[in-house]
Write a structure and sequence with these properties.
This protein has 295 residues and is of the alpha/beta class. It is 45% helix and 24% strand. The strands form 2 sheets. Strands 8-7-6-9-11-10 form a 6-stranded mixed β-sheet, with helices on both faces. Strands 3-2-1-4-5 form a 5-stranded mixed β-sheet, sandwiched between helices. The mean pLDDT is 93.
Length: 295
Amino acid sequence: MRYAAIDIGSNAVRLLIADIIENNGSVSFKKNTLIRVPLRLGDDAFLDKQLSDKKIADLVKTMQAFGKLMEVYKVTDYMAYATSAMREAKNGTDIVKQINEEAGVDLEIIHGQKEAGMIYASHAEQTIDKSKNYLYIDVGGGSTELSFFSSGEMWASKSFNIGTIRMLDNQDTEESWNDMRDFIRENTKQFKIISGIGTGGNINKLYKLSEEKEKSPLSFGKLKSLYGYLNSFSLKDRINVLGLNQDRADVIIPACEIYITVMKWANIKNIYVPTVGLVDGIIQTLIEKNFPKAG
């Protein structure tokens, strides 16, 4: 049995096809194929408040290809979600309809709160000590989702219009940053120690670059020095010398800035990076839908 997850983000569009494993009543998944297409829908959505014909055509073609791949892989169930860029595009609902008609893919535009919940559903918390306090930080191209956990329970969660593409396009506002700072301060004052959990493509890349031992957290100091190191290279050299993908080399800098700022405001010394994202959460949600007792 195979499930698929489609995540239409502001920087890239992803398809994860996963093999579903049933074992003595418990159900898990193993990643089979992950495809990432750097469409960068956010540039249009945040600057023009709608997607251009070119971006729409590229997105429809990508969804047609994903649909064909799901057929070939004999996927039995899937979910497709669009996040910040499509939330903001005035023609978002028309595009959803077009994708359904031309690619046969059912797509839903989800709000930030649902996105945060989905990322949490990726079960990254299974490796985490339930007795501690955590702040989940998911940085995307268009938004940052923050969720506070204490004793394994989520008790505050909010999505902010602060993201890497938004920052590159100078579309982040002082108001959004102030909102985020107030939210963090309000929810950290009763705790002495909070650890971070970071999700998203950029923190996964930063974690790889840090060469930390698997499952070890990344320290605030290490993240700051990584930021300084990456910032010392030109964009061209980040691609040619450091070997970063073209669509990662620019966004990784504002991503660092967001993580560093959030960690500073929340007084977080260490951040765990379980290398999961929205697509993992979608697969987990599909398992819980189809195997309610196993979830």
